[in-house]
Amino acid sequence: METLSRSWATLLKLMRLDNSQWTFPKLCLLRVFLLFPVNDTEHLFECLECFFQLINSAVKEGSAHLSSHTEEIVVLSVLLNSFINATSTEFTITHANQFLPFVFRAMSMMDHNLDVRIMSSKVIQNCCIALEAEEEVLVSTLICGSIEVMGIMSQSDHESASHPSHEMMMESMMNGIIHLLSNFRLARNLSMQLGLESILQRLQPTQSIAELVREIRAIVSRHGSTDMEHID
Q: Is 63 left (phi over 0), alpha (psi -120 to 50) or beta?
């Protein structure tokens, strides 16, 4: 444990380096460190803080800090691994608005690297499922971003829509939306305002996606009258 703590301390020094040459190796290390049991929350949180700042800077500066798809993939790998244990999950969720713009942008670019888009959809799903409290800004960001991306994907041609990778991404997005709709009235209200139903009608669903569509409609129908009473 002491050795691991020293390793976290060393990693923190690397994470604080403002040198693009170190971006890839330090993120690879952080990705691996997140697989171990948490025994040093202070250094863990500080490393993740540096990581979120890096993503935030990349978004603001047009991905200047992330010069390749490989670096984008390792960023997404870190995000996915940050949901492995409860401690890092809770910390990651509280910083979600720092990295969600990066993730949603990657998802919405239909000509973007396929692996990047698939991993982005998994990150979005993890964020939705990990959310336990109806935090207004975060719920709004997740439901609005998810519906916007689904809208873009629903306009794909038939060949693209039937591709396994497209199905995989759509399933991840819809699983996340199902969790939001099941748990948060705000998400249900926003989904109606943003025209989720019209997007569902445009889909060319496979069997698995068709089942998710039915589940979404059932949730909205089940809560519909109660939500309207609350608004009144």
A: left
pLDDT digits (tens, 9 = 90+) for 54-66: 888 877 765 545 6
How far is it, in rounded angstroms, from Cα 137 to Cα 96? 10
pTM of the complete model: 0.90
SS3 of 40-64: the string is CHHHHHHHHHHHHHHHHHHHHCCCC
Which tens digits make up the pLDDT trace of 156-201? 765 465 678 888 999 999 999 999 999 999 999 999 999 999 999 9
**Is residue 107 within a helix (H) or strand (E), and if so which, with residue range?**
helix 96-108
Residue numbers of the chain with a pLDDT score lower than 70: 1-4, 61-67, 157-162, 224-232
Residue written as tokens 């982005």? Answer: 120
* CA angle (116, 157, 216) in 5-degree steps: 75
Long-range contacts of 29-37 (CB under 8 A, 24+ apart): 30/78, 31/74, 31/77, 31/78, 31/81, 33/7, 33/8, 34/78, 34/81, 34/82, 34/84, 34/88, 35/81, 35/84, 36/4, 37/85
